[in-house]
Amino acid sequence: MAAQDIEALIRAAIPDAAVEIRDLAGDGDHYAARVVSASFAGMSRVRQHQAVYAALGARMGGELHALQLETAIPSGDHQ
Amino acid sequence: MTDTRQRIDALVTSNDILLFMKGTPLFPQCGFSSRAIAILDHLGLPFGTVDVLQDQDLRQGIKEYSDWPTVPQLYVHGEFVGGSDIMMEMFESGELKQLVGEPSA
């Protein structure tokens, strides 16, 4: 699965998301993603990750084997 | 599937710290499970593990139970805490230690 497809799916579900994807192994199969969105405010980490997993749907754990995930709320300093 | 749900209920309530993982603590079958075990080892408290590779019902059932698509999954005191990324964040921030408590000397 291509990095830009992962980003597109996340941004389709979380339009304000800033998404950074890194291909960890260079094999198109193991990625790390950092997703920053104001919509995460007030959500637990579990809920934030669930929102990203929901955007990726059934691909997660299937064609997308490994996604190391970090979520955050934009900090005033950087926005 | 309700049967599986009851089994998971029983597992997470009878273990203070329980990790659903791929493989065993000595032989984790996936990098994420390996990382989760390393974190739990650092905490120094006893924990239980369930190898989902040995049980297809559990492997599927735990994903639905937690509404979480991947393994490993950590439960503390019957509550879902998260996967290995959340474990790492909470370990680094000290929250995980706070959640599980100090090992008794």
Please tell me about this protein's structure.
- The complex is a heterodimer of chains A (79) and B (105).
- By secondary structure, chain A is an alpha+beta fold.
- Chain A has a single domain, classed as GMP Synthetase, Chain A, domain 3 (2-Layer Sandwich).
- Chain A is built from 2 helices and 3 strands, in the order αββαβ.
- In chain A, helix 2 links the parallel strand 2 and strand 3.
- The longest helix of chain A is centred in the middle third of the chain and has 12 residues.
- Chain A is globular and about 35 Å long.
- Chain B is of the alpha+beta class.
- Chain B has 5 helices and 4 strands, in the order αβαβαββαα.
- Chain B has a 4-stranded mixed β-sheet with strand order 2-1-3-4, with helices on both faces.
- The mean pLDDT of chain B is 95.
- The chains are: A alpha+beta (79), B alpha+beta (105).
- Chains A and B meet through helix 2 and strand 3 of A and strand 4 and helix 4 of B.
